[in-house]
């Protein structure tokens, strides 16, 4: 598998984990006083987030992306649904 394919897979997984953290785990913590899921989903999301950032930097070099494209990918990782947009618009070979 290529680095770009790994990035696309990681982008999807990171996006799903971010949404689970924001819309499932955090409400459970603050509305139902159940913080356990935040720890579990938070750890998974953190690992995927770091992997995503590393893969963006690797793919930037391998695919010779301009810095602007890599910066957009990194910015997308901190916006809900951003990695889905990035996977659809930045990471596909046109």
Tell me what you see in this structure.
The chain is an all-alpha fold. The protein has helices at 3-32, 36-62, 67-76, 82-89. α2 (36-62) packs antiparallel against α3. The radius of gyration is 14 Å and the shape is elongated. The mean pLDDT is 95.
Helix content: over 70%
Radius of gyration, CA atoms, in whole angstroms: 14 Å
Uncertain parts: none
Number of E-state strands: 0
- Give the H and E element order: HHHH
Derived structural class: mainly alpha
Amount of beta strand: under 5%
The whole-number mean of residue pLDDT values reads 95
Quote the distance from N terminus to C terminus: 19 Å
Number of helices: 4
Main pleated-sheet profile: none
What is the approximate shape?
elongated
Please provide a brief summary of the model.
With 94 residues, the chain is mainly α. The chain is built from four helices and no strands.
Features:
94 residues; single chain; 4 helices; mainly alpha
Layout of strands and helices, then pairs:
Layout (H helix, E strand, L loop, with lengths): L2 H30 L3 H27 L4 H10 L5 H8 L5
